[in-house]
Design goal:
The chain is of the alpha+beta class. The protein contains three helices and seven strands. The protein has two domains: 62 residues, Arc Repressor Mutant, subunit A; 49 residues, no CATH class.
């Protein structure tokens, strides 16, 4: 299958360090590849656009609220560690700025509603189930 050049599509983005640089729907962590995998698996896509719009993605962000958080940063060896003082979140980076940027992303993900990227696979299996012989003691008799 030929690979698509997503760089010209305004609905998606790829940011190094986020979701391993995979192409995702802009403003989300939803990999584009997951959408195609869901379609190939038979998922119904009719409600995806509405759900994404309700969550503030797609054509303009709806209902996005910004809230300030207090954070502290310290150095541990070659890394800088950032910790949110208001919510139990922490992150790290190679610089103080990167550690804070990663903490910002972690806090946004913390408050983002969960959304499955892959439908769970349900398998039906058959297994032979045999009864094991048992020894039953009843009074003075032993039965097998």
């Amino acid at each position: 299958m030929a690979s698509l050049n997503w760089s010209q599509c305004p609905a998606v983005q790829s940011i190094p360090g986020k979701v391993s640089g995979a192409w995702v729907l802009r403003g989300t962590r939803m990999p584009v590849s997951a959408i195609f995998e869901n379609i190939e698996a038979g998922a119904n896509t009719s409600g995806w656009h509405d759900r994404m719009a309700r969550r503030g993605h797609g054509c303009g962000r709806i209902g996005v609220m910004k809230r300030p958080f207090s954070a502290t940063v310290w150095r541990e060896g070659d890394w800088f560690v950032s910790q949110c003082l208001d919510v139990d979140l922490a992150s790290q980076g190679r610089s103080a700025e990167e550690a804070l940027a990663n903490l910002r992303e972690a806090s946004e993900l913390h408050y983002e509603p969960p959304m499955a990227t892959h439908p769970p696979a349900v398998w039906r299996i058959k297994a032979e189930v045999g009864a094991a012989s048992a020894t039953v003691l009843s009074g003075n008799q032993t039965t097998t």
